[in-house]
Amino acid sequence: MSEQQEAPSFSIEKLYLKDLSVEVPNAPEIFLVQESPQVEIQLQSNAQGLGDGAFEVLLTVTVTARIEEKTVFLVEVGQAGIFRIVNVPEDNLEPLLAVACPNILFPYAREVVSDTISRAGFAPVVLQPVNFEGMYMSRLQEAEAQAAAAPHEVPIQ
Predict the structure, then answer these.
(1) 3-class DSSP assignment, residue 128
(2) The domain 9-125 belongs to what CATH superfamily?
(3) Range from 4-13, 82-91, 147-156 carrying the lowest mean pLDDT
């Protein structure tokens, strides 16, 4: 008798703010400067298995604003989610964790970033949409290029 496998499923168990940090190291003097800051945005996504088909995905967004060498503000948001992924083929799991989950988390992180920067006394920074699939594909290509460029060891007899 063959066992019937359940259909693949993907669900959101919980979305939450895991980490929030804001720094305005040069306050109050920085509020008197009229110059517009240069804004740098960094994104990072990590996933870890929690067992029984549950995964925590953490999307970290870091926004740093500088005027010359002075930091105007630094905001770091860690938006997380617990996702249940069951009966999904192994080769489809990584794209789900690296693309689909960050796509779900990003709007929440964008709202927290904008609100936090406003509350710190600055004009909000509105993050533009992110192509997580493109970032994932780029990482894969980078890894393949590094593997191809690595010297092949030949065992000595």
Answers:
(1) coil
(2) SecB-like (3.10.420.10)
(3) 147-156
